[in-house]
Design brief:
Distance between the termini: 22 Å
Helix content: 40-55%
Strand order of the largest sheet: 1-2
Shape: elongated
Largest sheet: 2 strands, antiparallel
Strand content: under 5%
Number of strands: 2
Length: 156
């Protein structure tokens, strides 16, 4: 079985320059909220993925991890419903929200479910699973693939 990841490490978004600028500006504004707030204790710092996504955009790149996309989705959703001056950018923020949400949904649709053979309760394992038995190469490959799927499900 090849040693390739089951899911891409990063996803490239196709962003027109206007949307790229808006996303950059939204992320920067979110990062600076803590320093510009009247009482910084009232503002939670953004997750590290927001900083990483901002740095990626600042470098002119548009490839993001799923975690960064989810962080951007959260920020964009907050700004989309914001009653502040961001209302001017509402339509562009909505477009960005759709662009960011689509790959997240595609990724989540590929994740295994317990119905795919992943056991939520290890006590459900048959007793034979506890004994050492020789495996055929095909059976071994199948079990390794299912194990990777289950591990991915547990750590998403």
């Amino acid at each position: 079985m090849p040693d390739t990841p089951l899911y891409p490490r990063s996803i490239t978004l196709s962003l027109p320059p206007e949307e790229q600028w808006t996303l950059h500006h939204v992320l920067l504004d979110r990062i600076e909220q803590e320093t510009t707030a009247e009482d910084p204790a009232d503002v939670d710092p953004p997750p590290v993925e927001v900083f990483q996504a901002f740095e990626t955009l600042d470098a002119g790149e548009t490839s993001f991890t799923i975690a960064q996309l989810k962080a951007m989705q959260t920020v964009l959703a907050e700004y989309h419903y914001s009653p502040t001056w961001w209302e001017i950018e509402r339509s562009r923020i909505e477009q960005l929200l759709h662009r960011v949400t689509e790959p997240i949904e595609q990724y989540q649709a590929t994740l295994p479910t317990p119905d795919d053979g992943c056991l939520e309760d290890p006590s459900e394992l048959p007793e034979a699973a506890y004994s050492i038995q020789p495996l055929s190469p095909l059976r071994r490959e199948n079990l390794l693939y299912r194990l990777k799927l289950c591990l991915t499900l547990d750590f998403r």
